[in-house]
Design brief:
6 helices, elongated, single chain, mainly alpha
Length: 207
């Protein structure tokens, strides 16, 4: 669901930022996305039904893409080197998966029999704990003074951008109204001039 989620974020995110403030909206998104991901990580091993598993994986994908968009937005507020750090962070799940494969001894000539329910449950529980640690780090980062300054600057930019767009839309609407009223007045003048002219088909007086 990456494309629909990205399109939805691009459509509504800036308006919510301007209405409620970037600091609070982004923090709420972080809490929501991380909380859902943590809950799914602990719920997945407890559901054997294929339909339940697919629903949980779908929800996990939605909120994973959502937090991806939030983190990308935050990185865009900082200097360019932040983009390099975020790309490095996006590759960490690959390293994490490799570490878990080695830790559970699932490499080499392993087959499906090695993927026991106990190992699967431990994997998801460990992943949930890692996400909890990431949430704690995110909250600490959010309360830094540098982050607060960047949030205020970004929020001011968003508000000024929305005001400019509203002013431009109002000015265009005013121009349309003026053009319509001007055309109606011009039409009235022309009509009056036509009515004042004598008709060519009127009968002439014979002397």
């Amino acid at each position: 669901p990456g494309l629909p989620i990205s399109a939805l974020q691009g459509l509504v995110d800036e308006r919510f930022d301007a209405l409620y403030g970037t600091k609070y909206v982004l923090l709420a998104r972080i809490f929501l996305c991380f909380s859902v991901i943590i809950a799914v990580c602990f719920l997945l091993p407890k559901h054997d039904s294929e339909s339940d598993y697919l629903i949980l994986v779908f929800v996990l994908g939605v909120f994973t893409w959502s937090i991806h968009g939030v983190i990308t937005t935050i990185a865009g507020m900082f200097p360019r080197k932040a983009v390099g750090f975020i790309q490095f962070g996006f590759q960490l799940p690959n390293a994490y998966a490799l570490i878990m494969v080695v830790a559970f001894n699932l490499f080499g000539k392993s087959d499906m029999c090695d993927f026991t329910d106990e190992k699967i449950e431990k994997f998801f529980q460990t992943t949930g704990c890692v996400v909890i640690a990431g949430l704690v780090v995110g909250v600490i980062f959010w309360n830094l003074s540098t982050t607060q300054i960047v949030m205020k600057r970004y929020n001011d930019d968003v508000e000024s951008g929305l005001k400019r767009s509203l002013l431009s839309s109002d000015s265009l609407a005013a121009m349309d109204c003026n053009s319509e009223s001007g055309s109606s007045e011009e039409g009235g003048v022309v009509g009056a001039e036509v009515s004042m002219q004598p008709r060519s088909d009127s009968p002439r007086r014979v002397s």
